[in-house]
Amino acid sequence: MIKKLLAVSISLTICMIIPASVHAEGDAQAGKQHAAACAGCHGDSGNSIVSTFPKLAGQHFSYLTKQLQAFKNDTRNAPMMAPLAKGLTDKDIADIAKFYSEQTISANPMPTLKGQDHEVESNKHSDNKNKETELKALLTFGGDLYRNGDLEREVSACIACHGPFGEGNKPAGFPMLKGQHADYLIQTLEDFKTSTRTKVADNMMHMIATKMTEKEIRAVSYYISVMK
Ligand code: HEC
Ligand code: HEC
Q: Contact, 179 vs 106, CB < 8 A?
């Protein structure tokens, strides 16, 4: 037993001194340099300005590396990202993921409703008070779905995997969602639903998004975008 423990501790020590362990964890300083090529779309510190480009700041290391690998091996379909990811080595990916995971995500302003968000046609042109009431109702609907899901239609509660504050689950590699742009969230949920984001059939989000209505997708995305 003691011999075994000794052997384990020696091999752990060896693991810690060989450079491969640095590689697996990433070097944020090197990552920052690589990320200069990404800043045009994702912002200097991973807070993108354009709302269809996802924010990367504060996202979990494990999720970022998984997505970059998925762009690289074409299991996540994204015409803008694939050619860029194919030019990155595993070490580059780890370094970049480390850099973004250490940044802080910025808060979003309250969402502005668009044409298709108005259930009452006349509200499209009505005063701000009606619009505010409608936005509140949509956020409440989205928050309810986030926390409770829809049992009858088998839409799982988002909170179970993405956490009470939208912080995700680091050990499980479930992404943080809070503070993400609503337009990106809507787009990517639609892409899961239509198998555009990934053709991997047992992707958890594909199975969930397939059951979501258009209204649920928009409402939960608005809700998540202003979670703190
Ligand atoms: C021309 C604009 C553009 C550039 C430059 C760019 N990206 Fe992206 N990135 C996108 C878009 C658009 C998406 C969303 C892809 C999709 O789902 O269709 C994305 C998605 C991602 C995602 C997934 C985020 C998530 O929440 O799932 C990561 C990670 C990422 N990019 C990293 C990078 C890195 C690292 C670089 C630099 C090497 C980079 N990007 C450069 C446009 C860009
Ligand atoms: C059983 C766990 C689980 C549940 C429940 C769940 N998710 Fe997810 N979610 C995941 C996983 C895992 C991923 C990463 C998928 C991938 O790698 O392609 C993800 C990814 C996402 C993304 C993409 C994030 C990004 O940055 O691109 C969004 C948006 C999302 N989930 C929204 C939701 C919403 C809304 C709900 C509730 C209706 C929900 N999720 C319920 C596990 C879950």
A: yes
Cα–ligand 1 centroid distance for 81 (angstroms): 5
Q: How many CA atoms lie within 13 A of 177 on its CB side?
A: 28
- Rounded Cα distance between 215 and 219, Å, is 6
CB 42 within 8 A of CB 56: yes
Are residues 149 and 224 in contact, defined by beta-carbon separation less than 8 angstroms? no
Q: Is 34 exposed, middle or buried (0-12, 13-18, 19+ CB in 10 A)?
A: middle
Ligand 2 atom, smallest distance to 66 CA:
17
pLDDT in tens, 174-222: 999 999 999 999 999 999 999 999 988 899 999 999 999 999 999 999 9
Q: At residue 24, what is the residue type? A: A
- Residue with CA nearest ligand 2 atom 3: 161
